[in-house]
Amino acid sequence: MNCALFLGAVLTAYGLATGVTQTPCSGLNCPWTTSRATLRPASTRPPITTTPKPTPTNHTTPKPTPTNHTTSKPTPTNHTTPTAHTTTTAHVTVIPSPTPHTDPEPGKYNVTQGNKICLKVFSSIQIRVRYNTTHKQEWGIFYIHPNKVKPSGTCGEVNATLNLKFPEGHLSFVFKRTPKSFLLVKINSSITYAFPGTKGQTVKATNDKMEELSTPLGKSYSCSNRSLEVSEFFWVDLMKDHIQAFNFSKSNDFGPVTSCPQDGNHVVAIVVGVVVAVLIIVVIIAYCVGRKRNNAGYQSI
User: Fold this and answer.
1) Is 240 left (phi over 0), alpha (psi -120 to 50) or beta?
2) Model pTM?
3) Which of 75, 156, 188, 277 has the most CB atoms around it within 10 Å of its CB?
4) The CATH number of 104-262 is which of 2.40.160.110, 3.40.309.10, 3.40.50.2300, 3.40.120.10?
5) Three-class SS state of 29
6) 60-71 per-position pLDDT tens digit
7) Where is the composition biased (Low complexity) (predicted)?
8) Rounded mean pLDDT, 264-279
9) Overall average pLDDT of the 4-28 stretch
10) Which of 6, 29, 27, 227 lies closest to 128 in space, CA to CA?
């Protein structure tokens, strides 16, 4: 009996805690009938913490940052790289300005092998070039100034070469020895120059089939003005020149002079001119003397 009462008290307490009620029954052996109560939460409002709403930060994460757009754009410095084209102006500075038309000073050039001279040139040198302008062709003159020349050369058994290098280009002469004489057989030249009416031109010419300035061995060649044709548009003028190749004396001085035909013609012309002038003076004097005698023969009446 005590056990049944204790069990009943426990079940009653459990029913109060769980919402299960006990219906009264008669007798000690009546069965317990239970009715399940509906469980309700303490508050009808849903808890905020259990709602699966996304946080606002989830929407901002997929957005690209502004820095992503700026990195894909080319930097402005890429557009400034074409300024490298300004380097083409360097070609203009290489071209020398026109040289004033003044008579060039003569240069003295010796080509030696050891202590022995094989070629000696004393001359003023100018180059005449036919060049193209916008409307027509012109002849330009280029003077070689000795103070701007770097001479060099070679001596051989048969050939002697003189190379003249200057800021505007170069000019070379090749002399050849024959059994009885020496002569000029080749000229090679190239100049880059701003002739009047042009922005600058490079002119090249070579003639390796020349037979000029022929002179007996042991003698020197001299001429007041000698023009040498390298090509139809390129000429080299030697003025007041004195040249000898091979067979020098022990003192390395020039040998006896052989003048060019042009200078010989000038001497003949000068002699003829002097003779004609003397004849004219003699005729005038004879005329004056004869007239004076005729006037003295008449007497006044």
Assistant:
1) left
2) 0.57
3) 188
4) 2.40.160.110
5) coil
6) 444 544 444 444
7) 46-96
8) 64
9) 51
10) 227
